[in-house]
Specification:
heterodimer, A: 114 residues, 6-stranded mixed beta sheet, 0% helix, 55% strand, B: 114 residues, mainly beta, 7-stranded mixed beta sheet, 4-stranded antiparallel beta sheet, 11 strands, globular
Amino acid sequence: AQSVTQLGSHVSVSEGALVLLRCNYSSSVPPYLFWYVQYPNQGLQLLLKYTTGATLVKGINGFEAEFKKSETSFHLTKPSAHMSDAAEYFCAVSDNTGGFKTIFGAGTRLFVKA
Amino acid sequence: DAGVIQSPRHEVTEMGQEVTLRCKPISGHNSLFWYRQTMMRGLELLIYFNNNVPIDDSGMPEDRFSAKMPNASFSTLKIQPSEPRDSAVYFCASRFGGTSYEQYFGPGTRLTVT
């Protein structure tokens, strides 16, 4: 069965500092992996996705994530945090068992300090 | 495209009343999902449809909840009778399928049951 674990429900960084949000997944077959962002009072928006091919994927707003099969990880990074990055971030996994049902992690709230 | 449309955006009702939430998915998408989000439980998948057919409703909390998708452009989530613990933000999302598998979320309906 699929599962997603996001390490840390809250992460706080200073503006300009590196952002690292951790995600580990479990899947019995090659997974599709996603990061979504949710701003206050809005729905989730796709930030980036990994399906096949290059393991380092780039998304919107300067974010990127690397699929590491050996570590079953898909951590999200951004070299320099901006105040506007403050939001909740969700990692998600989907595979071809169960009709590509998507499992979301519990979310990590990112705080950015001035 | 207008994106996923949900109505109403806010609903306040009294315990025992029937509540109907509505969703119009993105045109051409063949999968539709209903989620519930609360502080305590995070994001929960309630039910999802493929080609208007319910595939997995294991997340529907009780018989008080029901969902329909009479055609490819409309779905409803009904709660009857409503209870205070149903208070949450309900999201609808749609997906094209193909080789993408990312979901597009609506803005949500904030339900308050008093």
